[in-house]
């Protein structure tokens, strides 16, 4: 190498004297992006698909009715005097309105400093907590908490979907389902989910007069339903005809049902549930819609309260019942 006139560079064991390096320098600007990344789930497919109505008291009430069973022997003689047909009164049902709230509080100093990813800290927290409030509602509506009238020191609670269902369920041995929103169901033995369970539930709903349109499932049961081999319509790419491994529509003998992945449909961590629902037979009744209340200042900070007061209206659990298909996670 030396004969060609090339010499290797001298070995450098340290920077030249007086070199300013980044870890010594004062005043380098931080590299903080002006974006805040948040992937927490905010979708609420249940309450978003239900109808809405108005509640006028903390105890919301409605009525259900049912026709007499069809008879094949309803024949009378010619000229016979009329006989009175027994009349069945309507059923009066109730659910309690619950109040959910979020209250962000931000100091005056935090409002004054320059921030990355948002300009107004309080407005940012309000927007974030509004999304949290909706997911709280979704989890409460699909929950297994019995309705509670409340009292001094005790909050009112609505009876969630699981506390209303009794007619068409397919559950593990030992399950107790009392319905009417007054009692939480007691889960029975876990077992593997099967397509026959789902078919039986849909058949029972149809027999009772229902017309289900959606199946709400968590992640585990969504994949379990995708493994069914029966009448199912799979999504197929229009251009390359690629077959996606996901069932979006279940083509039952009694109509098509949309399969809806719902992160909040079952709060259980060890068991899953599939809710087969007729959406128009469930409603969210608002006693007080979402509102933002400015709270009094008590110092150098600002507070606002987000509130909503609502309940679940189970219009007829027979017509819109679900089959809870509990299964072992593994």
How would you characterize this protein structure?
The model is unreliable at 240-245 and 323-330 (pLDDT under 50). This protein has helices at residues 45-49, 108-112, 121-141, 195-207, 219-226; strands at residues 51-54, 59-64, 91-96, 98-102, 105-107, 214-217, 232-236, 243-252, 255-261, 274-277, 282-294, 301-314. The longest helix has 21 residues, at 121-141. The chain is α+β, with helices and mostly antiparallel strands. It has five helices and twelve strands.
Low-confidence stretches: 240-245, 323-330
Largest sheet: 5 strands, mixed
* Helical residues, percent: 10-25%
How does the overall form come out from the CA principal axes?
Answer: elongated
| Count of β-strands | 12
Please give the radius of gyration in angstroms: 30 Å
Straight-line N-to-C gap: 67 Å
Strand content: 15-25%
Whole-number mean pLDDT: 84
Which helices and strands appear, and what pairs or packs with what?
Elements: H1 45-49, E1 51-54, E2 59-64, E3 91-96, E4 98-102, E5 105-107, H2 108-112, H3 121-141, H4 195-207, E6 214-217, H5 219-226, E7 232-236, E8 243-252, E9 255-261, E10 274-277, E11 282-294, E12 301-314
Parallel strand pairs: 1-11, 6-9
Antiparallel strand pairs: 2-3, 4-12, 5-12, 6-10, 7-8, 8-9, 11-12
Summarize the structure in short.
With 330 residues, the chain is of the alpha+beta class. It has five helices and twelve strands.
Q: Which labels suit this protein?
A:
single chain, 330 residues, alpha+beta, five-stranded mixed β-sheet, 12 strands, 16% helix, elongated, disordered C terminus
